[in-house]
Specification:
The complex is a heterodimer. Chain A is an all-alpha fold. Chain A is 73% helix and 0% strand. In chain A, α4 packs antiparallel against α5 and α4 runs antiparallel to α11. Chain A is flat, with a radius of gyration of 24 Å. The two termini of chain A are 34 Å apart. By secondary structure, chain B is α/β, with parallel strands linked by helices. The longest helix of chain B is centred in the first third of the chain and has 19 residues. The chains are: A mainly alpha, B alpha/beta. At the A-B interface, α1, α2 and α3 of A face α1, α4, α23 and α24 of B.
Chain lengths: 311, 544
């Protein structure tokens, strides 16, 4: 037994080292920094200035007293909730649709959906900035006015709350849907073709094949994408940041919790790393709880069964 | 199992050390020092000799700047300073040379500030950093820029040539952290052609503004007339400001203030802020000012609307004057082009920002840019620890040389910013010197000449120089936003409030309460700001 432990330690040590260096140490440091007054990247000055829960107190004070915080919470719930559905079920729909068509066409079609994700954030955001711009220079306004459907430009992003919400959901949804599409496509391609052929022979339609065979067999992947996207959307802010910064969407209803904290810590002249670290810890806790609840509700344990050895 | 535990402990310790939490103690070394005498050539030669004696043949510095397209002298001024010092050394047989390794120039000064802030601790920021004085307090407070108070004392005669208010803007807690590089004013521009259509006589208007006779109620009257009579689509266009909103001129115009020097705190002057927001709200509700102006695009909406005469008034900046000539904002008649100097002169009247109401004074607002020296300036050069003092003083001499009157005047003319030195202001009025600048017949390096050649061709002419000479008086009326680390946060809140009243989301009194709530929402900001006064009950706008 001693020899076995020694062997295991030897083979596992590279991974253990990596986990320590890139996960545990940063985690500990983040928690520690959240208890300092670290700001403006001044490590020399603030790293040794321990202030306990000051940054957390300050954050919760802001949450309670900021008149725009309610809008931020609402925006976060709506944005994460709807974009999550779009990303997961949109990705699923795309994967299923391309599963039933010629592979060459399917690949081209999927490539189109990858373009938003492959675009640099600033370029991608700029495209939609000009598309949705609230004056006559906006593409959408320009088209609608030329068609005579509207007589005055509409500042879409400033119609609150649903104008702002629609834009941020749309912009992020286009980027995020491709992730699910790729995962699901890969999962579907692992399903033995014989099952599909047999179902076809028995007269099943594409819809029936999808509902009865394909979707049940990729349950695990669905759960994974759902959880991953939830955690990702909870903490994403780059696209939102640009759209808000450029005044395309209303500040209050275009700001999620992640962006609110980013702007508070970094957007007001000083760069408050201590406050940001505290926010990161809070968001991590929310994410962990949310992820755990998601796994429980969707009965993760029941999927983790020993294979029956049928294949 | 004990071996495994020891392994884990060793890994944790290694990780902590690798993260830089422990270790890295400094070693003390002897250092060379030099005394500044105030005689530039003598000091430069002395420093050059010390460097040569220590085997240093090349001194590398980098310069970081930011701003509008025509303000590149913010970094090339440093390049020219290096050339001039190199010439002094060559003339005195000193085999040392300053090399400017990087002229990093970006459009957004806020982005430049954030980049400097995150890279300075890593030793990767520019040795010279020219940016808004508004960011100087934070940089000074963190020790990221060099305190040059003692160096400046040796050069008091040079310092005395700068406008005093600009030297004050370069201080933090009474210490000098930089030298002014340029400044500007925020004139009110008036379209002469639109004014003529509605019988608005502009003769002597600037005197009426100076006397406080012409106020924002008068602006409202004429803006409404222009709109009602179809002379212009808008009565007023203004800037959309961000972390340093230009619209706070209104606070000063209504007799308010933003900072209490006695307590060192920022001030939300409620009556003045309320009046400001009310004016914005009124103009927008009456269709004289676009309610979405805070979302307008600079290049596609704001500037074209002004240069194409679709508004009567524009709150702008002095640098607009040449930007309108070098940028293709004018699209009437088909192909977009820049304005000719004669067109700018023919179409635009300029005056101070009028008093908010009778009894108050006209104002303007300046945002001086300041040359700052990285507190680690010269760190990439040999024997930095020993020669730190020498490198820092050399960097200071670079700033002094970059502030030579002719360099400052060149920047002023080609960028339409105001000079920071009286000697530079005199040069701008010198017709012979202007002709020399036009033909680049000046004592400048080829590198600098090549980089400003196109701008010079587009901007240097008697009309533009006359404009600068004419508006220099505005510096006597200017105000500066507070130099306080928390000011950008307060400014951001003001911007949000203005946007809300313009869009009609809030009434002016609601917006004032919003500002107060936002200030009080952050414990640190709450501690740094005083709320003074109350919303005036019976205030009316416009006034007869």
């Amino acid at each position: 037994m001693r020899g076995k432990v020694r062997d295991l330690s030897f083979f596992l040590s590279p991974m253990i080292i990596m986990v320590f260096l890139f996960y545990l140490i940063p985690l500990v440091m983040t928690v520690y920094i959240s208890m300092t007054r670290m700001r403006n990247w001044n490590v020399d000055r603030y790293l040794t200035e321990f202030v306990g829960l000051y940054n957390y107190d300050r954050l919760f004070y802001m949450f309670q007293h900021d008149p725009t915080f309610k809008a931020v919470v609402l925006t976060t719930l709506v944005f994460v909730g709807i974009t999550l559905m779009i990303n997961v079920f949109g990705g699923l729909a795309l994967a299923l649709a391309t599963f039933f068509i010629n592979e060459k066409s399917a690949s081209s079609y999927r490539l189109l959906w990858l373009l938003p994700r492959m675009s640099p954030i600033a370029v991608y955001s700029l495209v939609w900035y000009y598309f949705f711009h609230g004056s006559e220079i906006g593409t959408l306004n320009s088209v609608l006015m030329h068609l005579g459907l509207i007589s005055e430009p509409i500042p879409w992003g400033q119609v609150i709350p649903w104008g702002a919400w629609s834009i941020i959901i749309f912009v992020n949804g286009l980027v995020g849907v491709s992730f699910g599409m790729i995962v699901f496509t890969s999962a579907l391609n692992q399903i033995p073709r014989e099952l599909v052929v047999a179902a076809r022979v028995d007269g099943a339609s594409s819809w029936q094949i999808s509902r009865r065979i394909l979707i049940p067999m990729i349950k695990w992947h669905l759960l994974y994408v759902l959880t991953w996207q939830f955690l990702s959307l909870l903490t994403t802010y780059p696209h939102l940041f640009l759209l808000v910064q450029w005044d395309l969407v209303n500040r209050d209803y275009g700001t999620t919790l992640a962006l609110y904290v980013f702007n508070t810590a970094f957007g007001r002249g000083e760069q408050d790393q201590g406050l940001a670290a505290a926010a990161a810890v809070i968001l991590s806790i929310i994410g962990i709880i949310g992820g755990f609840v998601t796994l429980k509700v969707l009965k993760f344990e029941r999927m983790m069964r020993r294979p029956r050895g049928d294949f | 199992m004990r071996a495994a535990a020891l392994w884990l402990v060793a890994l944790v310790v290694f990780g902590v050390i690798a993260s830089g939490c422990i270790g890295g103690e400094e070693t003390k070394t002897s250092s060379a020092e030099v005394q500044l005498t105030g005689d530039f050539t003598k000091d430069a030669v002395e420093i050059g000799k010390i460097l040569e004696q220590n085997g240093v043949k090349e001194v590398k510095f980098s310069a970081w700047g930011s701003g509008d397209p025509n303000s590149v002298m913010r970094v090339y001024g440093i390049v020219e300073a290096a050339r001039r010092i190199n010439k002094i050394w060559a003339d005195n047989g000193i085999n040392v040379k300053i090399v400017i390794t990087d002229t990093h120039y970006v459009a957004s000064f806020q982005d430049a500030y954030k980049e400097y802030l995150s890279k300075q601790p890593l030793g990767q920021a520019g040795d010279f950093f020219v940016n808004s004085y508004a960011f100087l307090p934070t940089l000074a407070d963190e020790g990221y820029i060099l305190d040059i108070t003692d160096y400046a004392k040796a050069y008091q005669s040079v310092i005395d040539d700068f406008y005093p208010s600009l030297i004050e803007a370069s201080k933090y807690n009474g210490k000098l952290y930089g030298l002014p590089q340029d400044t500007e004013a925020r004139p009110l521009y008036i379209r002469k052609d639109v004014a003529a259509k509605i019988g608005f006589d502009l003769n002597g208007l600037d005197e009426k503004v100076k006397n406080g006779e012409f106020t924002w109620s008068d602006i409202y009257y004429w803006a409404k007339k222009a709109k009602d009579e179809g002379a212009a689509e808008w009565g007023l266009i203004h800037r959309k400001g961000s972390a340093h909103p230009d619209l706070i001129q209104f606070i000063f115009a209504f007799g308010g203030r933003l900072y209490d020097p006695n307590t060192g705190k920022l001030v939300v002057d409620v009556p003045a802020v309320y009046k400001w927001l009310y004016v914005e709200w009124k103009f927008a509700r009456d269709g004289l000012l676009p309610e979405d102006i805070m979302s307008w695009d600079w290049a596609k909406q704001i500037h074209p609307t002004v240069v194409e005469g679709r508004t009567l008034f524009d709150i702008g900046g002095t640098w607009y004057w040449t930007e309108w000539q070098t940028k293709q904002y004018y699209a009437k008649g088909g192909t977009p082009r820049g304005l000719k100097p004669e067109e700018v002169k023919e179409w635009f009247y300029y005056t101070l920002f009028p008093a908010g109401e009778k009894g108050e004074k006209p104002v303007t607002l300046s945002q001086p840019f300041v040359w700052m020296i990285n507190s680690k300036a010269g760190q990439l050069n040999p024997k930095y620890d020993e020669l730190k003092d020498v490198y820092h003083k050399l960097a200071f001499l670079m700033l002094i040389k970059a502030s030579d009157p002719d360099i400052n005047a060149i920047h002023s003319v080609i960028s339409a910013h105001l000079p920071v030195r009286k000697a530079a202001a005199e040069l701008i009025k010198d017709e012979k010197w202007l002709n020399d600048l036009k033909s680049l017949n000046l004592d400048l390096s080829d590198e600098v000449k090549n980089n400003i050649r196109d701008i010079v061709q587009a901007t240097v002419n008697p009309i533009n120089a006359q404009f600068l000479a004419d508006v220099s008086y505005m510096l006597e009326y200017t105000h500066l936003a507070p130099a306080h680390p928390k000011y950008p946060a307060l400014a951001d809140i003001f911007k949000e409030a203005v946007d809300k009243v313009l869009r009609g989301e809030m009434k002016p009194d609601e917006a004032v309460n919003y500002i107060i709530q936002k200030v009080n929402a952050d414990p640190e900001l709450k501690d740094a700001v005083e709320i003074q006064g109350e919303i005036p009950k019976d205030w009316k706008f416009p006034q007869g």
